[in-house]
Each structure stands twice: as C-alpha cells, then as structure tokens.
Model the fold of this input.
Amino acid sequence: MRRGFVLTMLTLALFLILVQMTVALRTERMKVSSWTQAMMVDRKLLYATDDAAEEVRYSYGIDAERAGNQLTLCDSFPANYSIDRCLRGYRDFLSGKYMTADLSFQFYNASGSPIDLSALPPDVVVQPYNMTYHYEDYAKRAMSIYCAPGGACKGSNISAVSFAYKFSAANFTWVPTVGNVSHYHWSPEAMGGGCTGDPNCLNFSLSVVDSRGYNFSCPSAVCNYSQFPSSRQSVLDIAMAPCWFQITLGNNNIIETKLHQPNYPDQPCGTGVNACTNFNFSTQNFDLELPGSIGVTDQNFGFSRTYPLPGENVSARELMLEIPLPNLNKESLCFSSNPSGVYAGGSGNKYVYGFRMVNTCPSQRITITNMTVSWVPNSSEKIEVIQINSTTVWSYNSVGTPTGRQVSGTKLDILDWTMDPGITTNITYFRFQQGMLHKNFTINFTFGDNSTAFALAYT
Done:
C-alpha cells in the first residue's frame, strides 16, 4: 500500500512537472510569436513611414546631394506648381492608393501638433547648425538661407559656400564686362577689405549666367569680393529682362534672393532660374530635416511609429511617384518670355521682330486678352499692328480696340490668343508708324483670368 502511495505521488509530481513545462513552453512560444508579430508589424510600419517620409521631400522640388563635409542643394524657382498643392497631391495619393485599410497616418509640425500635410512649412533645416533653407511662400518666389534664431551663421561651421544661378529665359541688361562694372554696384556693401578674423565671416563664390551664356561672377574682374560678414548686409540688384534679380548677402542671413519687376522690388516677376548652393561644412556630421514628422499606425495590432521627415534619402530606395498635379489658379504664372532675339528691322526699321512667348505649364491653357506696349525713349511714335504666328491680333484699322494708331502705354484689347500647354509662340512682329531702333520696350500681358505678366525687350 505504501508502495502504491509512493507511485501515485511520483506520478502526480511528474504530471505537475509536465504541466509546468507545457505552460512554460507555451509562454515562451507566445513570447516568440509576440516578438515575431511585433517585429513584422514594426517592419511594415518602418517601410511605410520611410517611403512616405522620403516622398514628401520631392514636393519641395529640391535635389539634395552630400559628399563628405559638402552639401549641394539644387532647386528651381519660382515654382511651376506651388509646394502646398504638391503636398496635397501626395496626401491624396497616400490616403487613396498607398495606405492599406489597416494603416493610418498623421503628419505633425515641428512642435508635435497634428497638421494637414499641405500646411508643412516650406523649409529644409540642416542640423546641428540650425541652418534653414527657406521659401518666402509656397510659390517659391523668394528664397533665403539663414541660421536664426541663433543669429548670424558662423564661419567656424561653414568653411565656404558657393551660389550658382542659371537663367533659361532672362538676359542681363548690361553685359557683365569690366566696362560695365558700375551697373553691378552693391548697395549697401559690407564686403570691402574682406572680413578675416570676424567670427561671422564666410568665404563665398557667386555665378549668375543668363540665357545667352554671359556670366556675372564673384570673385572676378567685375566683382572682386570673396568674403562677406553674415551679420551685415550687402545687396546687389542685377538689371535683367524680363525680371531683375536681387541678391542679399548677410543681414543675419547667408543669402536671400528674389526675382522682381524692374525698378519695383516688391512686385514679383515670374521668369525661371535654376539654382545650386554648395556648402563646405567644418565636419561631416550634419543631417537634413523637414520641419515635421509622420506617424503611422497599424489598426489591427495597435502598433504605431513616428519618424522625423528627412530632407535627404534615408535608404537606397528611390521610389519616384507620379503625382497628378493640379492646374495653377493664375494663368500669368504659366507665362514666360524670351526677348533675347528681339530687333528692329524691315522697311525703315518700323517692324520689331523676334519676341517669343512660352506656356510653361504642362496641363493648363492660357489666353492673352490685352497687351500694353510701352517704349523709351518716347518720341511720339505710334503702334499700328501686332501679329502672333502670322495672325493679326490687333490693327489700328481692322482688328481689336481701340482703333487708330496708338501711343506708348495704350492698353490694346487684342483678338484673344490661346496658348496650349508647353507651346512656344512667336510674336511675328509689332509694326510702328516710325522707326524703332534703340528702344527699351515694356510689354504688359493681361490673361483671361485678369492676371498679368511683364516682359522687357531692347532693339
């Protein structure tokens, strides 16, 4: 009997050990399963967040390349499509086509508050220098680079910076040669004598190339500066046609650039420029960020991840997405002109030839409804005819209003002329009653939506 009791107790003990081992094994398996599940979900969130974060930067239109301690930011402005519209397009793509039913996402500003993606500020920040590449607005009409709120950018952080600007449809009014130095005058100017020893002193080079290939550069015979103090202001306003190009160095910025109407710095002008800025930093330890973050949540398991938005590639994957872009509201933003081939000729030099216009938008038609042609010197000459692509759109005795030969500055209601997307159109000629050699022309265009654009030409 005692032997049977011992065997019973032994069997029970072995059973309890087996149960304990089974429970332990199940617990470990559950742990492994949970770890595996968490890892799989986390990996899915990482890929989704990584993709979305990378793609947001394409809406800014900036190409960022780094090599060692050098960073190059290439860009074009003003924008054919405003940044906020592109961000809205990508937001709609995310919600409509990219995210699966079990994933949700939310964008946040730099303070961590939820925002719509289209409200993301138009900035790229270089850390740890807190240096910001900033647009004045989503249309990219003006650009600046600054280190605020920390004050002026330090020369100890930035060994050198170079600025390169290439215009495709704008030309210098004065060719940048030694004889025309007076037309490239910095005012105010804080660069004379250099600034070595100033902690805010930056070494720089500058190149501005027009559509004919003429180059204004610093340092050169036309501009002998190679340093500027970022704490003080130096301004150069370059006379170009159709837009003037203003460059401001310093003033607690590195640089500020804007395109504006001739002699009117506060009136924006729409000719395009390709820009590349190269920084030579003191170290390789820098990162690019956009001013916000993205959070992605797996609805099935409740896992979520939040990552900062990078201003550069964070992986080897480059998924370029074709985002359907909306039309612009203003037709004038699609309009560009090329007056480089303008000349006076024909009988008595009464014809002005060679003016070309371009609709730069890929999907929007624009219609010119009115033209105002002005010229100086003004010796009481009168305009008689305007032809576009060999079609008379205004004539003093047949087409358009007002009738009769018109003096400089008269608004002409022309036969509406529509330009299809991406099309270059020639103004066959402007015909005048008198010869028009050596004239500076200003041509104002009014479009079907009442927006306006401005062009200059010289004969």
The helical segments are 2-58, 83-98.
